[in-house]
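Board notes (copied after class):
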Amino acid sequence: MEKFIVPSRGEVSANNKIIFDRFQKALGFVPNLYATMAYSDTGLENYVSFQNAKTSLSKREKEIVNILASQQNGCRYCQSAHTVIGKMNGFADDEILEIRNGSASFDDKLNALAHLTYEILTLKGNVTQKTLDRFFDAGYTHGNVVDVVLAVAEITVTNYLHNITQIPIDFPLAPELAIS
């Protein structure tokens, strides 16, 4: 089996070099998973555009989706990255672990979002009416449903890419969840 190696700046297209430079300036490094997208001359740019698209979800709400999807999709890279990003967005360690388990009991509105996201992932979009009603009762809209589905699709790209490539995780490793 041919192994994926994280490409360096010198090994990618001119367009991807520009994107690498943006990551380097903003973060101080190019995360391995983004660098791996640079195997494609267009994939990295397309993904970054998708990731940075406007959404009705707040950063914290989007992190609920990212954390939960990364857990459900079995992506250790994204679990680790979004544990760090989740903390940057104000979530405590125990809250992140709870989100990874499919709920957010510390906040009723975020809990409704977590439950909807969990069902979108586990039921492949065939959510129950009860979960959808709970989402709307928490103050969300039809537009928010669309944006949650788009956020699930966005994070699933990186989840699947890492699950295929198994490139090294360059974030502190997220803790394993205790099986209950």
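Comment from the instructor: DSSP finds nine helices and no strands in the chain. Residues 114 and 145 are 12 Å apart (CA to CA).
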